[in-house]
Write a structure and sequence with these properties.
The chain is an alpha/beta fold and 506 residues long. It has 18 helices and 13 strands. Helix content is 42%, strand content 14%. α2 crosses α3, α4 packs antiparallel against α5 and α14 runs antiparallel to α18. The chain is globular and about 65 Å long. Bound molecules: acetyl coenzyme *A (ACO) and L-homoserine. It comes from Adhaeribacter pallidiroseus.
Length: 506
């Protein structure tokens, strides 16, 4: 690991029109480039973290973890406006010779991305294999992927959104009100606003955790207690903990960048901004997130071409994105193992790519998305022989992406009965499928090998004991179609069973 500081001695123009006369960026790197220089993982951190991702995202980052320094060159930069070594409100304002404090100009997520860009160029990085960020980190990752669509191969975003919600802004404003109510904030000294910051963190905690998290960790056993509750002590403790490592001026500045985050700013629309993303995208929501609720990530998934959505069933609320590292590892590892190019996802109905390996696990919704991957590739393989047509159905799950032509192609491939079953489910069913999220993680996965003599395909297929429990060997095209149809029937049967069990439960 190495911590470095990049001094950028030139004026840095901010989105607000003001300029910082120079910039300092503190960053950490771990590991080294591989010879092809295609192993870069770039981490965008959230509100109060720092560049030492191995410290705050343990379990996902570190030796022996998915993102480890033996395999990857990992970069994480402290964000603009923060207080861990990158230019922020406590930096010297050359005009006054003192720190900026409240005079620090308004910054934005786009300014943070511009600072990341300066560092990227300094490091000579031409391709980011995976760009990852949660919360405010995800907001940066999204903006970066929109502005530089060819730079990023995989975009991994967790508990984030396309534009900050009124609810989120209101939470932030309540926190800033607490800070401004502390008169010492106006003293413009490094310790200014500490009491306000403490209260702000306590408010923020309410949006990072849930009723149930407090219920489990702060529950009282003494029936006769009337004061000095654990929950009160917890709020105070957490407030102090932040005050001891952060400052009120950075906090206000960064919380405002979250408020103004909107990928649609100066774009035709939010949707069109998201459609510019070319990276293969994994969007992860946290089921109990009150601050960035899963519907915000579902919205992202609907508008980022080919994006795949998974929801982590977590008890921890928004901060689950920092805590659920085992589940994140599983989802990300699985996702990265599926070699789909952005080109394919975006607009290629006829794919030139035949993939070798697919992994399936996770939510019921993902089952269907993943089955699409399976079928897409299976069909592509089937048609690789005499017929040069290669069809991939990955985009099939996204009705916006040329569904009709795909349906018509599929129609030619499958007989009427299966076509009807299939098309109905995907024409009408995407949102419906999303209701079954509570079935996530109820499926194990299983490896399946398909060998048609010319090509061997290995799959790991969802397996709840019903779906698929044997290996196929395809002798010829006809057998393949038979098996494919059988698979569709199984998928449909499973779907119906789950719908029924949901209806029974309701
Ligand atoms: C320089 C640096 O410090 S690096 C920056 C570190 N932080 C970040 O990067 C931001 C991202 N990380 C986080 O936000 C957090 O660390 C999280 C979300 C991952 C975990 O949050 P935590 O606060 O560790 O967990 P949790 O909410 O369970 O609180 C546990 C803490 O509260 C204390 N606590 C729990 N109940 C009470 C109570 N009733 N009264 C007082 N203290 C309590 C625990 O003793 C524990 O203290 P510790 O942090 O000193 O070990
Ligand atoms: N706990 C995180 C939450 C912000 O999303 C932080 O302090 O950075």
């Amino acid at each position: 690991m190495s911590q470095e500081i990049l001094h950028y001695p030139q004026p840095f123009l901010l989105e607000c029109g003001k300029t910082l006369p120079q910039l300092q960026i503190t960053y950490h790197t771990y590991g080294t480039y591989n010879p092809e220089k295609n192993n870069v993982i770039w981490v965008c951190h959230a509100l109060t973290a720092n560049a030492d991702v191995f410290d705050w995202w343990k379990g996902l980052f570190g030796s022996g973890c998915l993102f480890n320094p033996d395999d990857y060159f990992i970069v994480c930069a402290n964000i603009l406006g923060s207080c861990y070594g990158t230019t922020g409100p406590l930096a010297e304002n050359i005009a006054t010779g003192a720190a900026y404090f409240q005079l620090f100009p308004d910054i934005s997520i786009r300014d943070m991305v511009a600072a990341h860009e300066i560092l990227r160029q300094h490091l000579g990085i031409f391709k980011i294999y995976s760009l990852i960020g949660g919360s405010l980190g995800g907001q940066q990752a999204l903006e970066w992927s929109i502005q530089y669509p060819d730079l990023i191969e995989n975009l991994l975003i967790v508990a984030t959104n396309a534009s900050h919600s009124p609810w989120g802004i209101a939470f932030n404003e309540a926190q800033r009100m607490a800070i401004r109510a502390d008169e010492t904030y106006n003293l413009n000294v490094p310790e200014g606003g500490r009491k306000g910051l403490k209260a702000a963190r306590a408010v923020a905690l309410l949006s990072y955790r849930t009723y149930h998290t407090y219920g489990r960790t702060q529950c009282e056993t003494d029936l006769n207690k009337t004061d000095n509750f654990k929950a009160s002590s917890y709020q105070n403790y957490q407030g102090d903990k932040l005050v001891n490592r952060f400052n009120a001026y950075s906090y206000v500045s960064l919380s405002k960048t979250m408020d103004s985050h909107n990928v649609g700013r100066n774009q035709p629309s939010i949707e069109q901004a998201l459609q510019q993303i070319k990276a293969k995208t994994l969007v992860i929501g946290i089921s109990s997130d009150l601050l960035f609720p899963p519907q915000e990530q579902q919205y992202l998934t609907e508008h980022i071409p080919g994006a795949v959505y998974h929801e982590i069933d977590s008890f921890y609320g928004h901060d689950g994105f920092l805590i659920e590292t085992e589940k994140l590892t599983q989802l990300i590892e699985t996702f990265l193992a599926v070699p789909i190019t952005p080109q394919l996802k975006l607009d290629k109905m006829i794919s030139q790519i035949v993939k070798e390996e697919f992994y399936f696990r996770g939510a019921f919704m993902s089952l269907f998305i993943d089955i699409e991957f399976l079928l897409g590739d299976t069909i592509a393989t089937i048609l690789t022989g005499d017929n040069e047509l290669k069809l991939n159905l990955i985009e099939f799950v996204n009705p916006k992406l040329m569904l009709e032509p795909k349906l018509s192609l599929l129609h030619k491939i499958l007989n009427q009965k299966y076509f009807d079953l299939y098309s109905k489910k995907y024409k009408d069913g995407i949102n419906e499928l999303r209701k079954f999220t509570d079935l996530r993680n109820s499926f194990a996965h299983k490896r399946i090998s398909i060998d048609n003599g010319n090509k061997k395909l290995n799959f790991i297929v969802m397996d709840n004991g019903k779906l698929i429990d044997n290996s196929f060997t395809f002798e010829n095209l006809e057998t393949k179609f038979t098996e494919l149809k059988a698979l569709l029937t199984l998928v449909n049967t499973l779907h119906d069973e789950i719908v029924k069990s949901q209806t029974d439960k309701a």
